[in-house]
Each structure stands twice: as structure tokens, then as C-alpha cells.
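agent> fetching stored inputs for the calcium ion docking request
agent> found them:
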Amino acid sequence: MVFTSLDFDAPGKQQGFLQVPYSHNLGGWANVLVPVTVVQNGAGPTVLVLGGNHGDEYQGQIAAMKLAREVTTEQVRGRLILIPSLNFPAAQAATRLSPLDGMNLNRAFPGDPEGPVSSQIAHYLTTVLFPLSDVVIDIHSGGRSMEFVPCSHMHLVPDRAQRAAMFSAMLAWNTEFSFIYADIAGSGLLPVEAENQGKLVVTTELGGGEGVSAKVHRVAQQGLRNVLIHVGLLQGTEETRAGLGLPPTIITQALNRDDYLLAPESGIFEIMVDLGTLVRAGDLVGAIHHLERPDRAPEPVVARSDGFLITMRVPCLTRQGDCVAVIARQVSADEVLHA
Ligand code: CA
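agent> prediction call returned; pasting C-alpha cells
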């Protein structure tokens, strides 16, 4: 069972850990210690900020660590719970999946209190931290496998009031692109569990994994602060893209399987259009080159829908079935809110 010495109701700023039981060959009564910061100051929303759900995604981990160090109790109205590296063993190992149990934490929900470490972390969020929270912010990027146009994103949740609140908060990240996505790769996602509990859920895909530019780090850190102001947790004036002299965000969505292009065979993937480019159905997006038969023509990867290239595979060496590109069509705010 996950234990913490933190008191989530105590006023002021606390630093502590979630302690997750985990035995290994040289540690009989060991725990995995997941760092947590809690800041509580009177009336206001409870906001849970999560980085490192996937261990190889650093933008959110850094943004949450910096905020945890910098934020003062006086700046907060309500309660802020920050977990910079949620899948802590994966963050230590620079991997997407936990090296302790091989699990994808973002497929482990609602979790299991008697399961492996990832299942226990998921269960603690499901049963303790989500019920405490009004807002859940889960900061992702493409990790080592994908590079995204830096965007905030969301599911089309069925509840219209929840959807509208999530839409406003998504826009408050002030990214150039906003992205409505579907779960084509399994169930058990962290945001879905939080959505099912009625929370205002804000998620992102801020670029990629190993190479993160200063610009993308700024988008992560400024966006997080602005969203926290937007939901009434942090003191300050909310910024808008218009106020910053930027064009409106391009709202895109990929809800159909056809929008998610998988490698038809293994080989070396070559992307042929730049991220953020508008393509048409039938356009060549990339190709898979044959390692063993370089004399054979490469296998084409063709867009099956119109839209922007919102993400692409990063490692060129590709296995059959890997997602190599996602095409997201532009939609209006009205379409998102009323579809
Ligand atoms: Ca991710």
C-alpha cells in the first residue's frame, strides 16, 4: 500500500514522498520514493500537476520541479500538489515504461493496490489524489519515440460543461496548435480516469524526448503557469495568444483510425514533410526503406485524411505497426464544443 507522511490538509508548503513498497534482491523492505510538493493556502481549487508519467518526457518534469522550488504559499489560492516525476523508476532510467515491472503507467489505470509498482501508483492517484483534486494536469511530450508540434490536447469528453472547461484550459496553454485526440492504443489512461471522475483535465504533447529546445521548455513552463492562473490557483494575470500578439491557436483533431498512420512493414522510416505541414489525403508523408533489399522501392506511407502533420516517429529504425505519423484536421471551436 502506498504511504505518505504528507498532510494534504496542512497549510503552507511541504516536501515529501509517496512511498511505494518494492522488494528487490538487495532491498528486502525497500520502497520507491516518488517526490511530491504540496502547497496549501486557504480557499480555492485543488490542482494536481504531473510530469514524468512517461519517464523519457522531460518538459513536464522540469516545469514541475521549477514551479515546486519557486512557488510560495502566498502565491497560491487553494492547494497545489506537484509530482514532477510520477513514474519515478522510469524517469531514473530514461524510459517510457517502468523498468521495475515493464508497465506503461499511462495504461495502468484505475490501478491495483496489490499489483506491481506502476499499478500501485495508479491506484493511489485514482483513490486518493484524483478525489482530492478539481484540476488534473498531466504534462506529456513524445518522449524518445515521437516528436509533436508542441501542443496542449484533450479528449472529447461527453459531458459538455466538463468539455467546455477543458477546452478553455487547453487554450490557456497558449500553444500554436491545440489537438483533440482519440485513444487508438489501448485503455487505462491516466487522463481518462480523471475525466471519468469529472475533473478538469489538461494534457499536453510538448515536442519530443531527448532533444528539447529552449523554446519548447519556455512553452512548457509559461503554459503551466498560465493554466494555473486560468483555473484560479496562482495569483497573476492570465495571458492570451492575442494579448501576446500571436495568431489564434490552430485547433486540430484526429479521432479516426485513418488519421494514425502505422508502419506497414519494418525498415528505416524517412519522413517527407515537416511537422505542422498541411497535407491532403493521398499525399506521400514518408517511406520505409528496406534494410535487406535497398534495391527494392521503399514502401510508401500515404496520408489517408486531410490535415496537419501533428506528430511523427523520431527513431528512423521502425518496426511494423509502429505509429509513424498522425494527421489532424483543423476544426472550429464550435465543432469541438458541440460535436
Ligand atoms: Ca507521453
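agent> quick read of the result: The mean pLDDT is 97.
agent> awaiting further instructions
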